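Student: I would love a firmer grasp of how sequence relates to backbone shape in proteins. I am handing you a single protein, as its sequence and its fold in token form. I am told such tokens are a discrete way to write the fold. I hope you can help me see how the letters and the tokens relate. Take your time, and here it is.
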Amino acid sequence: MIYINLLIGFLKVGLFSFGGAYAAIPMIRDIVLEYGWMDEDALMNMVAISESTPGPIMVNLATYVGCSRAGILGGILTTIAVVVPAFTIIILAIIFMEKAPKNKYVSAVFHGMAPSIIGIILATGLYMLLKISIRPLMNDTADIRPVLMTALLLTVFYGSRKLLKKKMSPILLILLSAVMGVIVYGV
């Protein structure tokens, strides 16, 4: 039964996650929590690990959940389940896109989807930031370190664009955030 649930759950994620991995995180969260495959803290940790390891976040998350719940076979099954819908959609889109850019309705749909995808990504980031910062309030203390680290990383990222006149490397930003995490939270 676990294999069927993993297959159906991650087929849903792969099929309905428009906007990439960051837009998929809320859907993965809902499915993982609905089936009780991991708790919220473990999922947040896995999102952070998936983001810093090579490969697409959505695939990394699917593989981890599958392996942790049903071994290697579960990992293979969830990886395939999350990738096949996107692969199929891309093949169909390539066929369709030869004529579609000239269609004003298709163009309007793409322009309309962009702001909603940005909103989903921003909402996910804010949710994670607030969850990490506000959750300790239940113990009468808020942890503002994640907020301060995020503000500092944003300042460095956008400040480097102004000073260097080019974007900061995502790898450098990940390394900087790792160093900050070790300094702020210790080892």
Summary: The chain has two domains: 2-142, 144-187. The mean pLDDT is 83.
